[in-house]
Amino acid sequence: MKKHLAMIILPALFWAGCDSTAWQADTGATLAGSDASGEGRAASDSLRGVDTTSPDPLADGRSADNSNGGDASTSDLAALDAASTDAAVADGMDHDGSDSSSSCPNGVCPPVANVCVLACATPADCVYAGTAPGGIYDEDSWVCNSGRCAHLGCLSDAECSAQPGLDYASMKCVMVSGGYKSCLAACSAPGDCPHPSRVDSPLYGADNYECKAGVCSYIGCHSDAECQEGISGTALAWVCSSALYGFPICSTPCTTPSDCTYLAGNPIFDADNYACDLGICRHLGCQSDAECAEAYSATGLSYLCAESFMTR
Asked: What angle do CA 7, 9, 13 make, to 5 degrees?
């Protein structure tokens, strides 16, 4: 069985530009380029095989592409921890390419959400079967911190080019958060930023991006209608809101945490894994190692609850 990374590799949120947080965007589609087959992405995606070549602008960490709400099976763990992790690959993070802890939108950084990660004794334990040599998930891309896998990010532009699934004409390994580097799509204009697999999505058109310092920067949703059209297959309500982060992302409105749950029986998405902040759902991540063990029991792999997917 292949090891699946229970950590989002991207633009995770897609907010890796914020040094003090693990932004809650859909890590399901927050990878700007993890292997399109589901390899090398966070558990939320690798376990369900959805395409996550672009970051989804979700505020609560849900997987917008999850069409099986209520199904807590392994194949649909959905954003799971990944929903609240930092990612190593991005085509649209909000960042300025600098190593700044104040690069969160409007200087507002949400609390870090915990994430389920693979247990390890050495960095080799963090590498899944079939990892592309020279890519961003081989052994030199990991460290084992206190028995938990932590990703170092990309190490060079060459690694980004070698990573399967990053289907942009050009990728750059850019500093996005406190020493952490991520693969970002290179650009000369916003039209270079929509991923080939997402060109028809109302949430990932050229008008949803800026080209800043030669790399793509996702600027968010433009309206509730855009969110509702762009996110299908769920019974959840979606609004385009800047309430939590001062940055427009598709969010689920709430009055209590119970309004935020959508995977019945999944211990990572119970009401105790959410907060209702300013009327918007915010995923808090895993609460214990036991939650991760239960959520990923069908994989046969050992997962633990960690503060972050990436090394800071």
From this structure: 90
Enumerate the domain spans of the chain. 43-220+286-306
Output the pLDDT for position 213: 92
The encoded tokens of residue 196 equal 């080939």
Per DSSP, the three-state class of 291 is: helix
| CA 165 vs CA 52, 175, 240, 292: distances in Å | 9, 21, 29, 27
Res 41: pLDDT:
28
User: Stretch 164-182: mean pLDDT, rounded?
Assistant: 84
Contacts of the segment 154-160: beta carbons below 8 A, 24+ positions apart: 154/88, 154/89, 154/181, 154/182, 154/183, 155/181, 158/134, 159/134, 159/135, 159/183, 160/33, 160/89, 160/136
Judge whether residue 50 has pLDDT over 50. no
Q: HSE on the CB side for 5, CA within 13 Å?
A: 39
Say whether 88 sits in a helix, a strand or coil: coil
Helix (H/G/I), strand (E/B), else coil: 145: strand
Q: What are phi and psi of 306, to 5 degrees?
A: -130, 165
Q: What is the pLDDT of residue 174?
A: 92
3-state class percentages of the chain: helix first, strand second, coil last, to nearest 5: 20, 20, 60
- Nearest-angstrom CA–CA distance, 83 and 45: 10
| 229: pLDDT strictly greater than 70 | yes
* φ, ψ at 162 (rounded to 5°): -80, -15
* More confident position, 299 or 4: 299
pLDDT computed for residue 113 by the predictor: 82
Three-class DSSP category at 276: strand
| pTM of model > 0.85 | no
Nearest to 187 by CA among 167, 206, 160, 215: 215
Q: Where are the beta strands (DSSP E) in the chain?
A: 115-118, 142-145, 148-151, 171-177, 180-185, 209-212, 215-218, 239-241, 249-251, 274-277, 280-283, 303-306
